[in-house]
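Annotated sample (chain length 64).
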Amino acid sequence: MALTDRVWSALTSMIKLEDKVTRQAEAVKAQQTKIEDLTARVIRLEAQLELLTSAAVIKKLKGN
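Output written by the structure step:
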């Protein structure tokens, strides 16, 4: 009986561990998606900033 209990306990622990790993993998995927979205937003903001900065310099040069 003790052997059966230990085997059952080991199987139960393994199933729980597999579930935790699966949930963690899903969380990592979601975080990666958020990071990629934020990276794209930063790239767009950098491009806008460069365009506005260039436009301001050109406007300043034309004004002189």
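Annotation: The radius of gyration is 28 Å.
Annotation: The helical segments are 2-63.
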